[in-house]
Every structure is written in C-alpha cells, then in structure tokens.
Amino acid sequence: MTPTRAAHHRIAAVLATLLVALSLGLFTPGRAAAASLQEVTGFGTNPGALRMFRYVPDGLPAGRPVVVALHGCTQNAAGYSAGTGWLQLADRWGFSVVLPQQQSANNASSCFDWFQSGDIQRGQGEAASVAQMVDRHLADVGADASRVYVTGLSAGGAMTAVMMAAYPEKFAAGGIVAGLPYGCAQAAGSPYVCMYVGAAQTPRQWGDRVRAARPGYPGPWPKLTVFQGSADYTVKPVNMTDLVEQWTDVQGADQSADAGDTVAGYPHQVYRAPSGAAVVETYSITGMGHGQPVDPGSGQTQCGTAGAYLLDVGLCAAYRMGAAWGLGPA
C-alpha cells in the first residue's frame, strides 16, 4: 500500500516530535544521552590482573567526586553499576564512577579475592590494581582527590574493606553492602567460616588488623556505612556486627550507637567518635536476603533496578551512601 500525501505529513510530524523529545532527553530520565561506560587499559602494572571501566557524565567539570564501585560474585561492572543506581546518581548529582571488574581467570565465579592474602595487602594483587585505577582516573579527569569513595556488594563489599584498610589515604568514606570485615578470612581460618559463622575477635583485635595493613598511618581513616539483610544466609548478619567493632575501634569510638532511627521502616544506627563526628552508620534491612537494596522509581530518594542480588526493598543503598557522603541532597 502506498501512503497518501496526508499520511506522509502525519509521519513527518511524528518523526519531528520524536526528534524534539530525544533532543530534550525525554526518553532517558536521569541518564545522560551520550555518556557510556568506557574501558581503560594501561592504568598501571595491574598486579591483580583486573579490568578497569569508568563512567564520566557528559560535560562533567574538573574537581568533582569519584565513586569506586565493586561488583559482587557472578556480576560485572556494567550490570552492577547500572542496577545499583550509581550511574543514575552520577548523572543526577555530577560525579564519576570507577568500576573494577574481576576476570574469570582469577576467580571462576568473578568474585574479588578478598580472602587471599596476596590480594589484600598494600602494594600487592587486586588491592594494588584498584589503587592504580584510582590514580589513573584522578589524573585523567581532574577529579577531587579528597572526595573519593569506595563501595561494593558481597565480595565487592569485602574488597571495599580491603581498600579502606590498605589505602586509607585514598578514600574519604566507604560503603559495604553484605560484606565482611578486613582480615576476616585470615582471622577465621577460612572464608566460609567467616561468611557463615564469623571470626572470634575482640574490637581491638579487629582494629589491629586494619592498623597493620597501613603501619604508622596517622589518619584520618575513612568513615563507613554498612547495609545488611537480616535474612542473609550467604553473609550472615554477624559480619555487620564485626564491621562495626572493627571500624569503631579504628576510629576511637565505642561500640554503642549514639543515635538511632528508622529509614524507610528499617533500623538505622549512628556511631560517633569522641569529637562527635559520625564515623560508622548501619542499616539493617529486615527480612532481606543476600543482595544490594534498591528502590526503583523516579522519586528523589529512589534509584536502582531490581534483579539478581539487586533487591527491591523500598530503600536505595546507593542514594543513602551518596547523600551521607555529600554527593547530593541529604
């Protein structure tokens, strides 16, 4: 069938409307139209044999913050960064994202090797590779070196603790989701004992493991936010307790919460240093299993997309972390 002249005019009008909508970004809410994930090679000696990806929103000026986001097992940089909401927030608030990615040659399940002594020490293995990514990214984009944050899920959460301990001078704060304290596998004698039972350490012993990772470091140490599902049977909630003990000890705080409330219906606690500064905060997500909390939608506090290990619980962990770190509105 041959379109009539009137039909041609209608088609032309529709196409014009589509072009206007695309130019205004109406079909990509919260995301820049042209920015995309880019792989970076040659970022250093890369002793951990990781891959580096990054996301820089179009037109991002120099001097903006950076979030380093570490995926969980069976995940990759692209799926994790988009699903958690970090790319959405990067566009909304104006910061860049560095995305380390594990390779199956290192770990068959694509887990970061948080339990291997050779990958968690300063200057060695995967920890050194992530540090080299940060240095390369800061040099390339002119980001604010005093506003670099690190976060991750599960094995990525455990590697977040590694980076905070081994390279504390590089990070202002960290966010651990369903993760484990630094040195847990070594303290427990097995990563599985650590995950399912926890390690028998006093707060001082936990803190000493962090201090030993960066001998003589005078501080300041990164602040910490922890998210943990109460029904997580892969990384048991005891690990959040151990994280609190570890990082309150490092920060010179006691193990009693100084403030508590509920956020989106979930218990939220804040631990303060003697100076009064909030140095550790926790979110216990009642009934949640193993994964990262997300809250899909277009509301101000919403972000993320539900999927495997990305759990819609009405609270977006990335938003809460970013707001606490001053990346966007509280």
UniProtKB/TrEMBL annotation:
Q: Name one GO cellular component term.
A: extracellular region
Q: Which InterPro entries match?
A: AB_hydrolase_fold, Esterase_phb, Plant_Biomass_Hydrol_Est
Task: Please indicate if the UniProt record lists Manganese as a keyword.
Answer: no
An annotated Gene Ontology molecular function: hydrolase activity
**Would the keyword ATP-binding turn up in this protein's UniProt record?**
no
| Keywords of this entry | Hydrolase, Signal
What's this protein's name? PHB depolymerase family esterase
Q: Which Gene3D superfamilies match?
A: alpha/beta hydrolase (3.40.50.1820)
Signal sequence segment: none
Q: Which domain of life is it from?
A: Bacteria
